Amino acid sequence: MKINRDSLLIKLIFYNNIAIVVTAIAIAFITTFITFQDMESRLLTRAGEKISLLDKAKTNYLSTVKEDLYEALRKDLLDKSKITGKHDIDIQLLKSELLKKDFQTYYRVGLAVVDSSGKILGKAGEKDVLSSQEIFDYPEISRGIQEKNYLVHINGKIYSKVIIPYNVTDDKKVKEYLVAAVPLDLNFLQYMKNFIELRNEDKIFAVVKDKYVNGDFSDKDKENFVSPESFNALKKSKQKYFYKKSSIEDGAYYLAILSLKDYKDEYIGNFGVAVSREEVFRTKVIVGVFISIIVFMLVGICTTVFTKILRNLISPLRDITEAAERISMGDYETPIKLEGSGEIKTLAISIKKMLGKLEENQKKLKSQNKKLKENLNKITTIEQLLLGIQIEDDVTVTVRKIMSAFTSEMGLGFSRCMFFRYSRERDVMMGECTRINSHIAEIKNDILKERKSGFDFQINELKDIVPLIKIPFSEDNISSRALKTKDIIYYNDKGYKYDLGNDLFKSLGLKNFLIFPIYNVDYYSGVIVCDYFTKDKDITEEDIELLRLLLMNISVKLKNKTNEEDRIEIERNTTISKISERFINTRQSALNKLLDILEKTKNQDNENISDRIQELEEQIRKIKKSNKTLMEYSTQSKNKLERVNIEHLMAEVIEEFKRTLALEGKEKDIIISSFISYTGDVFGDNNRLKKAFIELLKNAYDATMLSKNLPRKINVIVIRDKHANKIKIDIKDNGIGMSEERIKTIQEPFVTYKDEAPGLGIPLVMRVIKDCRGVIKFNSVENEGTTIKITLNLFREDIKS
Question: Which residues, other chains included, contact 434 with Cβ-Cβ below 8 Å and sequence gap of 6+?
Fold first, then answer.
């Protein structure tokens, strides 16, 4: 292939060589920088190790001095003949013992005996040490014994005090101490230097405040050894060690400084180690030269080799260019040779893949058309549900229609649907009915063979398992959360990973599932759980948006049906109220006139007339009572629900009922007992609840009085449901009982089995319990008795009335 001046090959070689040079220089710079940093870091680590050893050496040195003092003092105590009782003489003898042990160490050490008040009783040592009272003047002598490093500086020198008890007499009340002033001088520094094994080029030194005292450096930089900035940093720093780079006597060093503080934690000076940096400088130069040579060699080799390689690699590009031109003209049968490597081979592969894109695009179009068709079916299904669904009296009928659409292959195509109805009495969601996709039911045997186990009961026995499932109505599980939040919850995942509220529910093997709540504005009905069991399909956001539209429509229809029922009931009550008012007013006028006549004839002597009048008065009272009940039923209105203390309420109800019986002389006819284990508050209307419970007690009394069961009794039980925020109230009697048919009829208005009763007591009670968002049920056995079960909600601040 002929290479032109503007050839891509020439440009690639030129820019590639530039890239190699720039990359090599960058790598060399980074490598050099990292190497130099590592060398500096090693030097810093070495300085840190040396200063740490220096600190340990100082402590070891002073510990040795303390041990020698104890040993010398112990020898004197063993040899009582050496103790004269004169402190100056005894301390001189102790000094002599120490000099024998180590003359070089203890020659400059000053010794003194002081009492507990700090008074010097005797001393020994050189005059320049003993002449300074401050060396031994330490009133807090008992604290000094505890100090590990009790340092002072006197006249530009640093001393460390070593204090031990000096008890040479038998008098335990006398407390004396032996104080040794150990100078930390050049002799001490040389000991430290040998201990930490410093190299010849490394230095050791001591600084008192900001001035150089002694060490391996000369005194010419004595005044400016520590700069004012470094001195202030050392003085204020709370750290024990301090590091800095410095140039001293034309030499470069890395200084590691040990901060010295007295017993008051005040800065007095430093010991330091100066690690020479000259060797580092030499090493840096050698490393820099070496890296530069390597870089130049690599650049030369790489540019030469890469030029030849690129020339060979780019030659197949012409064949690819020609093939691309033929493809652009529509020749899709053009063969493409996969020669070359790298980007050229990638380009050849890409062009070859491009030929397969048309077929792939065709497949995608078919797949998209299929998905579009599914979406249209879903939209059509939702539309039909929106237009055609009717809310029945039994919500389960409506739910079954929804589940049928959800599991239809022409609809949403879910594998299974399960409905869990919310029970207000138990505060749980109970499994009620199921629906299985007909397609899944047809191929279940084939799927069972693939799965080998676990499928049979999840399909064949689903309708038997679901009624056994009870889900607590709590936000801890997602089933209840969907109903409480009134929104659809869905997961494209396995169901066992989530809290479904029931372990048996988890065993059903939910996969890619959603929870669809059924509710109206005021009441919960339950949830529909659907999943793609055995199907590799995901629930999409588009599906959820369609279902939310359906959810909103169902909720509105349920609310409208409730409103319609309420409207009909209000109209019926209004009609009854008008008729009752006209009827009662007419009867009331006649009754009042009749009462006047009775009053006028009451005082006559005719005994028969008096008995007839008494009977008539009793009938009039019953009529008035019936009138009152009728007016109460037709005119009662809902009040705002409030906090009602159930213990006080039931106590008032029972007491008032007993008082009524006592007024009629019937208190001994029946035994009324109560068991109230909950003393908290419920949600309701206090006055209406009181009237309702009294009405129930009256009915229980009447039924008991008609029975032959003895003793006649009524039991009132109030307990809290441990599994829900509910209060259970049971009113039990051993009366004549009722049949199932009679239980149904007594709940209807104007149906009564008592003479001259309006038949509104039980309907009135049921309305009160319903308005208080409670549940009432009747369980009865003929000739055995009746149990009335009432469930009310616990009062909580977050519940709206």
Answer: 403, 416, 417, 418, 419, 462, 463, 466
Bridge partners for 259 per DSSP: 270
The residues near 788 (Cβ < 8 Å, ≥ 6 apart) are 696, 700, 730, 731, 732, 776, 777, 778, 779
Long-range contacts of 435-439 (CB under 8 A, 24+ apart): 435/400, 435/403, 435/404, 435/406, 435/407, 436/407, 436/462, 437/407, 437/408, 437/409, 437/413, 438/407, 438/408, 438/409, 439/409
Q: Angle CA(218)–CA(102)–CA(183) in degrees, nearest 5?
A: 45
Q: How far is Cα 21 from Cα 16, in angstroms, rounded to an integer?
A: 9
* Mean model confidence pLDDT for the chain: 76
* Of the candidates 596, 584, 569, 567, the residue with the CA atom closest to the CA atom of residue 625: 584
pLDDT by residue (tens digit) across 719-755? Answer: 887 766 788 899 999 999 888 888 877 777 655 555 5
Which SS3 state, helix, strand or coil, does residue 349 take?
Answer: helix
With cut-offs at 50, 70 and 90, classify the pLDDT of residue 16.
Answer: confident
The DSSP letter of residue 504 is H
Give the containing element (helix H, strand E) for 516: strand 511-519
In a 3-state reduction of DSSP, which class is residue 612? helix
701 Cβ neighbours under 8 A, 6+ residues apart: 657, 661, 670, 714, 733
Number of Cβ within a 10 Å radius of residue 537: 14
Least confident of 236-240, 680-684, 775-779: 236-240
Distance from C-alpha of 732 to C-alpha of 142, rounded to nearest angstrom: 86
Does 615 have pLDDT greater than 80? no
Residue 576 CA to residue 574 CA, distance in Å, equals 5
At 748, phi and psi to the nearest 5? -90, 145
Predicted confidence band at 179 (pLDDT cuts at 50, 70, 90)? confident
- φ, ψ for residue 725, nearest 5 deg: -85, 60
What phi and psi values does residue 46 have, to the nearest 5 degrees? -65, -45
What is the rounded distance in angstroms from the CA atom of residue 479 to the CA atom of residue 489?
8
pLDDT of residue 496 exceeding 90: no
Nearest-angstrom CA–CA distance, 765 and 726: 19
172-210 burial, b for 16+ CB within 10 Å, e for fewer? eeeebbbbbbbbbeeebbebbbeebebeeebbbbbbbeb
Q: How far is CA 547 from CA 399, 402, 434, 466, 654, in A?
A: 14, 11, 19, 23, 52
Distance CA 538, CA 414 (A): 10
Q: Is the pLDDT assigned to residue 770 strictly greater than 50?
A: yes
Least confident of 82-96, 394-408, 487-501: 82-96
pTM of the prediction? 0.44
d(CA 42, CA 683): 77
Which of 206, 57, 179 is CA-nearest to residue 109? 179
| d(C-alpha 460, C-alpha 158), whole Å | 96
Instruction: Output the furthest CA–CA distance in the chain (Å, rounded).
Output: 151
Q: Which of 757, 767, 762 is nearest to 627 (CA)?
A: 757
CB-CB neighbours of 169 under 10 Å: 11
3-state secondary structure at position 117:
coil
User: What is the b/e burial string over 746-755, where b = at least 16 CB atoms within 10 angstroms of the residue's CB?
Assistant: beebeebeee
Return the structure tokens found at 372: 């579009």
Residue 615: DSSP 8-state: H
Cβ–Cβ under 8 Å, residues 118 and 108: no
**Averaged pLDDT, 521-545:** 85
- Is the confidence at residue 544, as pLDDT, over 60? yes
CB count in 10 Å sphere of residue 705: 14
Query: How far is C-alpha 251 from the geometric centre of its chain's CA atoms?
Result: 60
Distance separating alpha carbons of residues 694 and 137, to the nearest angstrom: 97
Burial of 358 (0-12, 13-18, 19+ CB in 10 A): exposed
Give me the helices (H) in 492-540, please. Answer: 503-506
